[in-house]
Write a structure and sequence with these properties.
heterodimer, A: 90 residues, alpha+beta, Ubiquitin-like (UB roll), 2 helices, 26% strand, B: 329 residues, 5-stranded mixed sheet, two-stranded antiparallel ribbon, 9 helices, 26% helix, globular, transport (chain B), cytoplasm (chain B)
């Protein structure tokens, strides 16, 4: 069986005064690490300092796998990732 | 840890330490003779970056100019700083090495390999977020951690920093993250059937059946079924679990059980397996190590979790797997 990485739908949500993305939903390989989402956000928003959370709750370790995060914290078929320019849920 | 007083096992865990012999990387030695290695006793439940204030004085006079970006390596492997020291040791030293010889770098941070670490603040942030993640798994939300007062949060972190178990219990018991008796609920999340990855996330649990309680062995078998191909699992539906938390929609792949179980007030996330990305049927579990010991697999899992978990409420299980080399003709 060929191992195809399954894609996970990630929904990016702005928090506080963070700019809202034109396109907020993306599909990403489950085998990618969370850092890919963080880097993507940094590039899109042209900001180095970003606080990124899952389900408005906690910041996952950047090395966590998307698929693990989805399996444990996904809601309604997607992984909700919130981003803020300053610490939101400290 | 829901109990108000420490158990003897918890005390042992918190007092556990790894003797380190830390060598400065030769590229950073600018004086002759080269400095002697630093001998440090590192708490198992601590983190390597927290030792820098102790280590630096050994080497500060010999470092090249520049600002410090500290990282550690073991036999060429850069060490992930957010993994507790004891876990790194259990995972990387099949034969415990005493003292454990590590190399420290103060320059040239490998940003493409390691996530950035700016000292204690980074470690604290990582710790608190891991704690929130654990709380989320156990309770479905992490309000208890988020609603901690600043002074409680500081005290919690300081207790970890200082290895003060009594102080830790005092603050953490307010979080109500304890396990309820021997009841467990299994919520297994394995990703793609085809995708075998080394770290399985699961919340292990099982109800007591006819006097039999859920053991460590049961937990490991449920988490890593591919490592026990010949043994019968406690429940057939565990072999390819696909369980949602009651709200999630089904993932694309086929699900054997399809039954949703909501997280009960139990269980911790199990993390950390020996690196082996391509497990095959010839894989064998050679060793299971938790907090430096090889617990008997018959031990009730509840005991293992309550007594051997780390302060961020994760139980780290290091698994050594023997994988046979494919025979090439």
């Amino acid at each position: 069986m060929a191992s195809e990485p399954r894609k996970v739908v990630v929904h990016l949500r702005a928090t506080g005064d963070a700019p809202i993305l034109k396109q907020a939903k993306f599909k990403i390989d489950g085998s990618d690490k969370f850092v890919k989402v963080i880097d993507f956000l940094r590039r899109q928003l042209h900001r180095d300092t970003l606080f990124v959370y899952v389900n408005s709750a906690f910041s996952p370790n950047p090395e966590e796998l998307i698929t693990d995060l989805y399996n444990n914290f996904g809601i309604d078929g997607k992984l909700v990732v919130n981003y803020a320019c300053s610490m939101a849920w400290g | 840890m829901g109990s108000k007083t420490a158990t003897e096992a918890q005390k042992y865990v918190w007092e556990g330490a790894i003797p380190l012999q830390i060598h400065l990387h030769e590229s950073e030695v600018t004086t002759l003779p080269s400095p002697s290695p630093a001998l440090i006793l590192a708490p198992r439940i601590g983190y390597l970056p927290l030792l820098v204030p102790q280590i630096k004085p050994f080497f500060s006079s010999t470092l090249p100019p520049g600002s410090d970006t500290v990282w550690f390596e073991y036999q060429g492997l850069p060490l992930k700083w957010y993994i507790p020291t004891g876990v790194l040791y259990d995972l990387l030293c099949a034969e415990p090495e005493r003292p454990w010889n590590l190399t420290v770098h103060f320059r040239g941070y490998p940003g493409n390999i390691l996530t950035p670490c700016e000292g204690e603040d980074s470690v604290k942030w990582s710790f608190i977020n891991s704690l929130k993640e654990a709380a989320y798994i156990v309770n479905g939300n992490c309000k208890n951690v988020m609603n901690m007062s600043q002074s409680d949060q500081s005290e919690l972190w300081r207790s970890v920093l200082n290895g003060n178990l009594e102080a830790y219990i005092r603050v953490s018991s307010k979080l109500k993250l304890g396990l309820g008796g021997d009841d467990f609920s299994i919520k297994l999340n394995t990703s793609s059937l085809k995708y075998r990855q080394s770290a399985a996330d699961a919340e292990a649990s099982a109800t007591i059946k006819a006097g039999k309680c859920f053991t460590l062995g049961d937990a490991v078998k449920a988490l890593l079924p591919e490592l026990f191909p010949d043994k019968s699992l406690p429940n057939d539906s565990m072999s390819l679990p696909q369980v949602e938390d009651g709200e999630g929609s089904a993932l694309e792949e086929a699900s054997d059980t399809g039954s949703a179980r909501s997280p009960e007030d139990t269980g911790e996330l199990v993390r950390e397996c020996q690196d082996s990305c391509s497990l095959s049927e010839t894989a064998d579990v050679k060793l299971i190590r938790i907090q430096g010991i090889e617990p008997k697999l018959e031990i009730p899992f509840a005991w293992v979790v309550n007594n051997l978990m780390n302060p961020e409420h994760f139980l780290h299980i290091s698994v050594y797997v023997r994988v046979q080399e494919p025979i090439t003709v």
